[in-house]
């Protein structure tokens, strides 16, 4: 089986049109590789539909698809493609590509400005979203921010009542379907609190309460327990952090250098002990 083509088609199958799914199925069924004109006649689809299909699954053109289709299993790269390393390489690439396609640079910039303008930040996340919160705290604490990670339903509900005007709340929920999170964010409506939402669900109710919405990639078919599910959140955090470094370079650099010195001193003390 042509594992590489099967994986990239499978990862993008849900966003294909009905015509594109016909083209996809041809390759999933391991039919002979044909020229674009021959395939067009055989499937009764247009050349442009085939080209759009190639771009939809992340390839440049039909020639690239045919090349990969013919060679990915039989070539010297077969061992890599079928190995655990090849699997990780492919799926991380797909997640990053999807995140870059979905994330809005204007929303990333807005999130960066809100974070940079806030000193106290409350990071709300359940499960693996809370793991990403630790990375958020490490990055932004080094820039002088006070970051509180709140990672269980009861604590989030209590925190919603204690958040002060002027604080910033960052909510991370890829599914966007947590009822407890929706109830907690409802409490913030009466307060002058900005909310940055990181989610993969563009239809979540939480959007109605957010100042900024960063829509990132979803794990969907890749969520098999092998790929760390917090990766799309981490990608979004990295994008916001990178934007802050770009926008506020000089001030940020001073804070970063100072935090780096502190970290080195702590390491020296541990080594000394």
What do these coordinates show?
With about 270 residues, the protein is of the alpha/beta class. The chain has two domains: about 5-80, Winged helix-like DNA-binding domain superfamily/Winged helix DNA-binding domain (Arc Repressor Mutant, subunit A); about 100-265, Glucose-6-phosphate isomerase like protein, domain 1 (Rossmann fold, 3-Layer(aba) Sandwich), CATH 3.40.50.10490. About 60% of the residues lie in helices and about 10% in strands. It contains 13 helices and five strands. The chain has helices at about 5-10, 20-30, 35-45, 45-55, 60-70, 80, 85-100, 105-115, 130-140, 155-160, 180-185, 230-245, 250-270, and strands at about 120-125, 145-150, 170, 195-200, 210-215. It has a five-stranded parallel beta sheet, sandwiched between helices. Helix 10 (about 155-160) runs parallel beside helix 11 (about 180-185). The longest helix is centred in the last third of the chain and has 24 residues, at about 250-270. Mean pLDDT is about 85; it is low at about 75-80.
